[in-house]
Write a structure and sequence with these properties.
This protein is of the alpha/beta class and 348 residues long. It has eleven helices and ten strands. Strands 1, 2, 3, 4, 5, 6, 7, 8, 9 and 10 form a ten-stranded mixed sheet that branches. Keywords: Signal. InterPro entries: BUG, Bug_dom1.
């Protein structure tokens, strides 16, 4: 009887110890899950943890119709139509200062996860030529999107039929031809033209460049106020299809495919050994939530896989050039050094 009682007591103690051990394990598991959620090591990705709560303002730091404006409106349109982002994406033009006015506006939005802006080489050029205190390091890289090219256009009735015709005139008298662009002197529209004609043997320090920062460069050309317009390929395509301008050259390494754009000759095929890639991407204000950055980065990446985007891309003659936020930052740092050397070389 005594032995039976001892065995029963032992059995009860054994069961009790097993129950306590199980409770302890459950507590440890719960604590582990809690810690995982706190340090972000759960399976849920950062891009799933943030979504826009209100309409998104997309800044095009130039007037309507140019490369920044076209890119901003096309990307916003596809993101909305494909329902990749379910909030309104309102494109707002803020021209002036070769982009500096728009950048100042975005700079005032530090920490705002609902403001983006489209960017390209002027974010490097303009600070280098002293026209803005703000540069690429003052903003948050989101993603690289496309590679575009420059186009040099004249009126349909211009005496210049080829880029060589224009280069010859500039060699004879660099001040005899006026060239317009929507960016400031020393910025992209100016520099892409300078780089091209320098390769053709022109004295670039005497060029007559007119800045149409209100976005009226094409209007100035068509109105006969300037002889040449240095612009992006997308704007040139529209007017060339309408028969209003002649495209003397584009800065692509080889001819592009597509309706109308396949007719545009390159600099290289005219004996001018030069090319210029107009990359474009998106940035946001400083101090954005990293989760918001991941959200927009992934949204842009998903958009570029859609047929709607591919149709628009081909229509404008763009080339996909996706870069993640981290890749975009590294690219910008590298390009800044290259542009710094180029501007020093040509005396600007």
């Amino acid at each position: 009887m005594k032995i039976w009682k001892q065995n029963l007591l032992f059995l009860m103690l054994l069961v009790l110890s097993m129950i306590l051990a199980a409770c302890g394990g459950t507590s440890e598991t719960s604590q582990s899950a809690s810690n995982s959620a706190a340090d972000g090591s759960s399976e849920q990705t950062n891009s799933d943890s943030w979504k826009p709560e209100k309409p998104i303002e997309v800044i095009a730091p130039a007037g309507a119709g140019g490369g920044w404006d076209t890119t901003a409106r096309t990307v916003a349109k596809v993101l909305e139509e494909e329902k990749i982002i379910d909030k309104r994406m309102a494109v707002v033009n803020k021209p002036g200062g070769g982009g500096a006015v728009g950048w100042a506006y975005v700079d005032s939005k530090k920490g705002d996860n609902h403001t983006l802006f489209v960017t390209s080489p002027p974010i490097l050029f303009v600070p280098l030529n002293g026209q803005s205190d703000l540069g690429h390091e003052d903003f948050t890289p989101i993603a690289g999107v496309i590679a575009d090219y420059a186009a040099f256009v004249v009126k349909a009735d211009s005496p210049y039929d080829t880029m060589n015709d224009l280069v010859d005139a500039l060699k004879e008298d660099p001040k005899s031809v006026s060239v317009a662009g929507v960016s400031a002197p020393g910025s992209m529209d100016h520099m892409q033209f300078v780089k091209a004609v320098k390769a053709g043997g022109v004295d670039v320090k005497q060029l007559k460049y007119v800045s149409a920062q209100d976005g009226g460069g094409m209007t100035m050309l068509l109105g006969g106020k300037v002889d040449v317009y240095s612009t992006g390929l997308a704007e040139a395509v529209e007017q060339a299809r309408a028969g209003k301008v002649k495209v003397l050259a584009i800065t692509a390494p080889e001819r592009l495919e597509g309706e109308t754009i396949s007719e545009f000759p390159t600099l290289k095929e005219q004996g001018i050994d030069d090319e210029f890639i107009v990359w474009r991407g998106f940035m946001g204000p400083a101090d954005m939530d990293p989760a918001a950055v991941k959200y927009y980065e992934q949204a842009i990446k998903d958009m570029m896989e859609t047929e709607t985007w591919k149709e628009q891309r081909d229509n404008f003659g763009w080339t996909d050039n996706f870069m993640s936020s981290e890749e975009f930052k590294s690219f910008l740092d590298s390009e800044y050094k290259i542009m710094d050397e180029l501007m020093e070389e040509i005396g600007l």
